Amino acid sequence: MITKEKLQDYWRENRRLMMIVLLVWALVSYGAALISGILNKIVIFGFPLGYYMGSQGALIVFLLLIIFYARRMDEIDRKYGVEED
Amino acid sequence: MAERSFVERLKKVYAIYTGGLILLLLLLYIGEKLFNLSPTFIGYVFLFGTIAVYAIIGIISRTGQLAEYYVAGRRVPAIFNGMATAADWMSAASFIGMAGALALQGYNGLAFIMGWTGGYVLLGVLIAPYLRKFGAYTIPDFLDARYGGKIPRIVGILATIIVSFTYLVAQITGVGIIASRLLGLPFEIGVFVGLAGILVCSFLGGMRAVTWTQVAQYIVLIIAYLIPVTVLSLKYTGNPISQISYGFALQGIEQKFAQLKGDPKEIEVREIHKRKAEELKAKIEALPTSWEQGKLELENKLNTLPPNDPKRAEIEKQIKDYPKSPQEAKEKWTEAMKKTQEASKPPKSYVAPPSDAKGMFNFLALTLMLMLGTAGLPHVIMRFYTTPTVREARTSAGWALFFILLLYITAPAYAAFGSYEMLNLVGKAFDQLPDWVQKWAKVNLITIRDLNLDGIVQFAEISIHPDMIVLATPEIAGLPYVIAGFVAAGGLAAALSTADGLIITISNAISHDLYYKIINPNLAPSTRVKIGKALLLIVALFGAYVASFRLAIIVELVAWAFSLAAASLFPVLVLGIWDKRMNKQGAVAGIIVGLGVTMVYLYLSRFKGVALFGIKPIAAGIFGMPLNFLVALIVSRFTTPPPQNIQEFVDNIRYPKGAVKAGAEE
């Protein structure tokens, strides 16, 4: 049986995880875009870093974020015993 | 264990299918080389061959069962749902247009790359797992259960239909264009060929058939997208992985742009553009007399020519294309003026972000709208109802983004190599241009005119259509025609798969949400499937009918769909899950304000030239979206909290275990 308190804790933990994920999400897209003029001064293998972040870097971080969130939620589900039967 | 063998079987089937596809390519290649098969023949093989395969999958997946028809029986494994979502999501615009937009707009084009992928983080974290737990068929189902009553459902139906239908018309238009380019058919016939292609995938088997054809379509589109750019990358850099080799092209573009800035010949051409823009401006200011004058001049010219002069045809065409009214003249000439003004400026850096605050604000706002819009688009969200579990809904978002990224991280490489190739034309003599330039000039995808009459190509003399980059790359890379035909088949797959997803979303919104849930709840399941199929046919025909008009505004409407979805559906979905205190009054008020403000700003910015903080119509939702959140929060706090059963419902969708009562499956 899932109690109300347990559910509240579960949700609090999920919410914290969500905020971390969205913070990183915002930093690699909007944050990087805002300073892309400066980042462009760093050039790696011909790629100016500011342009690279928008064209590929942010996208790869997005994918990692989704994978990270799915994995962590699996653990949290099990910790609170609310995973699917 | 049954599930595991199901996955194994699927993998085997699609592996055989992929092998067959590659075999077909090889056979056609041999045919082209040894037997001189004509491009039209190859085109027909690709068009009808791929549609026949989709049709076979559609027929195998036919069903009369409700859950199969609406949500593919909820047993689509995460990886396959990821592929289907990727095909569902990537439209003709992603496949053909996006690389070109990047090539033409430089850094600004990255808003689409980030915007159309970043939304999946929001989907995977904020929305998809919870809607899957709820386990209904549609978004209006969720709004009804969460907020209670008919009004939220009706608002959801309206938003779904408005957003999805404009999108659908654009996809059918895309199919028509590709079919007409591939086979030289008239556009209208291309549209109906496309329509047939869409219906064979969806009519018999609903969501189940759409899912399995979308997987097949994804495989076609991704292979078709990757081959040409890989070969081009190998040719330039010796490295087949274009996604990491195009830094070389970026450097080349930047160097060339810097040179072109001060080149005297370039400046000469830019001055010609400037003069032309000024002439157009004068003509616009002198409306309507300038319109009458222009018309008279053309008619006089025609009258002075003898009846069998070959020049007559050209002038007759000019008269036919001449604006029909002063109003139309104003629109056409203003557009032409903007274009020449743009061409009169020295090239901007390809990699530098917008230099002014307004430009940056518009870029950020557009990126945000595309992300939130993606997470609020009904046909994408629907796909997450088809996974077997909540857990798989979460991983499926990851798979979807993975399969989307294969194309999206390649698009910047296409754009860079394409731009580099265009810059290589600069300085060439007009009589030494490569064959592909002539070929694509015939269909107006590239225009090069010797404006300063020096016989040499200047950068400011080249103007290209965004679609050119992807379509012309096979020839630029020196590949046989088979590959060019295959790329067109890939574009077709992209357009068809998106159209399928949209058609089923719209017909479900009408048959399930409106007819069954509101008008006549006493229908037998088999009748409901039949009504769904009938509506599918009607929606598809109506979509094709609207597409056959080729309205210019359609392309714009698609971009607006993102702002509209971001300012209407996204906030109420997120608040419905993450804010337990949110109630019906708050949600409805939020949607009305969000949608209303966005539509008003769209109108003002598109037709009245308003640009608050530099925001263009495409990012219009940036005002309505936060207002939707704000109004919803304020109104809900001043009205009664949602009833006990709804609060329990929210608790229930928040964790994976167990079933949800309110949305129990029939």
Question: Can you characterise this structure?
Answer:
The complex is a heterodimer of chains A (85) and B (666). The model of chain A has no long low-confidence stretch (mean pLDDT 92). In chain A, a hairpin with a 2-residue loop joins strand 1 (43-44) and strand 2 (47-48). Chain A has 85 residues and is mostly helical. Chain A has one domain. Chain A is elongated and about 55 Å long. In chain A, 79% of the residues lie in helices and 5% in strands. Chain B is mainly alpha-helical and 666 residues long. Chain B has a domain at 1-37. Chain B contains 28 helices and 2 strands. Chain B has helices at residues 2-35, 39-60, 66-71, 78-89, 92-105, 110-134, 139-147, 150-183, 187-202, 206-237, 242-245, 247-262, 264-285, 289-304, 311-321, 326-343, 357-376, 378-383, 390-408, 411-425, 435-442, 468-476, 481-519, 525-547, 553-578, 584-607, 621-638, 644-653, and strands at 446-448, 462-464. In chain B, helix 25 (553-578) packs parallel to helix 27 (621-638). Chain B is globular, with a radius of gyration of 26 Å.
In short:
The complex is a heterodimer of chains A (85) and B (666). Chain A is mainly alpha-helical and 85 residues long.
Topology:
The complex is a heterodimer of chains A (85) and B (666).
Chain A: H1 4-34, H2 36-39, E1 43-44, E2 47-48, H3 49-80
Antiparallel strand pairs in A: 1-2
Helix pairs in contact in A: 1-3
Chain B: H1 2-35, H2 39-60, H3 66-71, H4 78-89, H5 92-105, H6 110-134, H7 139-147, H8 150-183, H9 187-202, H10 206-237, H11 242-245, H12 247-262, H13 264-285, H14 289-304, H15 311-321, H16 326-343, H17 357-376, H18 378-383, H19 390-408, H20 411-425, H21 435-442, E1 446-448, E2 462-464, H22 468-476, H23 481-519, H24 525-547, H25 553-578, H26 584-607, H27 621-638, H28 644-653
Antiparallel strand pairs in B: 1-2
Helix pairs in contact in B: 1-10, 1-23, 2-9, 2-10, 2-23, 4-10, 4-19, 4-23, 5-20, 5-22, 5-23, 6-17, 6-19, 7-8, 8-9, 8-23, 8-24, 8-25, 9-23, 9-24, 10-22, 10-23, 12-20, 13-16, 14-15, 17-25, 20-22, 22-23, 23-24, 25-26, 25-27, 26-27
